[in-house]
Amino acid sequence: MSSRKPTNMGEIEGIQTHSNSVFATYFLTFAPTDATSNPVTRHIPQATPTTPESHPRASVHRETPRHSVPDFDLKPQNGSQSYLVAECMDAEMVCCHWSDFKRHYLPFHAKLLDVDGCLEYLTQGPKPVLKLRGNEPLGSKQYHWTNLLDLPSRMRKTEGEVYKHLEEMFTSIRAYQLKRSYHRIPNKDREASLFEFRNVPHTNLSSWVPGVNQRAAETCFTADREGEMSPLDQTMTTAPDVKLTYETRQENRIQLLGDVSRLMSSDPRRMFCYAFTVEDDLITLWYFSKSHSVKAGSFSFINSPREFVAAMLPLCFATDEELGFDPKVVRLKGNSFLYHFPQEDGSDTYFKTLEALAEPRTLRLSSRATRIWKVVQVESPRNLKPLGQEMVLKDVWLKDDADTEKQIQNNLFEDIEAFARLPNRGDHPCLTYCRQQDKLALNHWLDNENYKSLFLSVSHEYIGPFSKEKVPEAWQQQGLFKIPKGRHGTDPCTTVSSGVDELETIPCDDSYWGTVEMEERNCGVAKKQCRFVFKEVCTSVHRLTKLGDAIAMLAQCVVALQVMFCAGWVHRDISSGNILAFRSTPDDPWCVKLADLEYAKRFSSDCARSDPKIGTPYFMPHEILAERLLHNPLMEMYANSGSIGAISDSDEEDFAELEEPNSEGREVWGAIKHNWQHDLESLWWILLYLITARIPHQPSRDWALQVFRNSHRLSRTREQVFTLKIYTTLSPSRVHEPLRPVMKYLEYLRDKMCEYYLRREREGQLDDPATYSGAYSMFINAFYKLLKTEGWQNINIDTLELEAQVIAIKKMPFDERKRERTDDNSRSDDRGGKSSRTTSNSVESCTKSAQLNVGSNKKARRR
């Protein structure tokens, strides 16, 4: 029996089903073996584990830790996540005939000579697994399995006996020697993979990903014949049973989706994967990728041993890359990974992962699947000596015609530079209502390319291969996954519609804020894998330890958005995860880094239709989320006088008490384009989120849980928060006492934004840049005054308590979530602290454009 080593220096990972399946379900998933069997990595020494600091440094690095993400339930015992995935995936599955699947999706097409040769081989030996059906005419040989003469549902055999027969079948196919040469391996014979059938009943599988420990299926394909089992050691799991009903078929298909989704999310090497299910004697192959997923037509493996051999040969003799593994990512001993970046000059650059900063938890497989790592450059796969400081690696799937983040950033910088070179840029329409002091401060960022420091620096880029396109003969078919009655996975915090291109769930640790892009799905359009390495290791604004530091970053972000506005660009995905804080040493002040330019684009007045709904649901602007323009006739009193965008320098006039708006209003439907004020409005929602959901005050958290939901549907509660006076929906008694003065600024900004929206829409000025210029000065002025107030800057941002609450609520049954509010005043301590001025003393040099004499507490503890 021949075997080979993996071609990508990695292992082949598998997923598994549950042993309580009630019909035969095969999940064909290939996974790298343990690094000790890897000829390239087996001798790589493991670095001594250390705790990395928050600032870049060169040192000995620890293994890559993984974090359990409760929002995506990884425990197979809880099937709700599988039902939720099934609800989302049912709308995007396509089907094709088995002949088309065999031609288009299998690693290679087994030639007739090898199919016949393998069938003949299976009839030989002391214990043949295949026999001829009597005397057949020459050229029309018919075969039957030696020990599977009838349908499994009719056989009077135990499951163990069925497993044994399957083991004999696959072992014999693997032992066959191919006679013909196949593409991708020129001048070299293909060898069987190193996976063998293993019977592992009642076995628990350990996992290197916390929360993913699973019960083993009765059998699986693995490279390890002995020892402790892990999902990474598997390639195919089987759970045959002789009974079959419609309900059990649906349950197993749903479980298949759940397991495939967990696999594709947890393994950074996985580009696509295969699976197959067996429903009595009918075998069905599946293909799952980042662009589309397809189910092939079924055939009887009992009546058609020839088709079974033709299907299994390409899978048993495929290379690692043909089975969905990226050859540019290698799993190292100790569960860290090595990313390979080929350079244009032919050299190679390698980055070793240190820590997973964000992992995808997607409801649909055809998503961007954004994964973010803290990494360090190393010399080579054989020498993992760190070279230089820590950096950040971003791994994402984009549509084949989409610009990469580096290309977008280069285009943005070109347009900023073009504006900076204008001879009379101070008179440009985009600065019409900008205050003079703000214009002078803006000059600092426009001169000498200083604006580049407001964004992340891309040091390396890699564009991987394109995914496979959908077979032209495929058709869309819904209803493949029928959710059992009473077992729907829809969660009020995570909702999906048929128009969602991707919806990534929000992890409860908030390490990654999923972006929703709702547009017509182009199922089957090829995608490309894109990887970027950024020089700066930053902290998300909601991960800063002091509230004053976090709000100071929002103030600096206004400047970055103003620079983009001058260049004619909109960001379209402002969130607390995309506003980053960076400092080289713990004694340096925090400086903002605006990240994730994937959705950024030039604002165009020529758009024939509205933009797709894009953004993070928590912070999505009201008009974008509502998909209609804001129009309240009762606010006309504010729109009938004054120039749009003009603001006063007087504190009394700027923050005067506004008229109480009537609760009744009318909204006008219209084409919605993401404009510049929408970016600023997202900052307003982040500020509201920080002072309600991110501080240790239970009443405000209870309120926030009703407003901030990971849903693309606008709730009535959220609508009222923006369209009514802030005190109408958020009672001051719910707000942590030191933060109550902040509500004055929230209400001022909310009221002015509504006024600006109304005037533009009434006067047809939605595409006029001059009407947006005053909004930036308005935000700069408001944040400047807010950060000068005392008593709240040193309140701690308590993330762990928030996570625990969200997890507990998500584990509740749906109708039990409407619980009474519990006022936990014992936690509303005096974290406002004495040194509230510390935050507003050290960032002046970093925020010249906004004249925000605020900064970071130099003694803030390192994250």
TrEMBL record:
UniProt biased composition (Polar residues): 839-856
Domain of life: Eukaryota
Region (Disordered): 43-74, 816-863
InterPro entries membership: Kinase-like_dom_sf (IPR011009), Pkinase_fungal (IPR040976), Prot_kinase_dom (IPR000719)
Compositionally skewed regions (Basic and acidic residues) per UniProt: 54-74, 816-833
Sample GO molecular function, one term: protein kinase activity
Annotated Protein kinase domain residues: 339-758
PANTHER family: FUNK1 11 (PTHR38248:SF2), FUNK1 6 (PTHR38248)
The name this protein goes by in its record: Protein kinase domain-containing protein
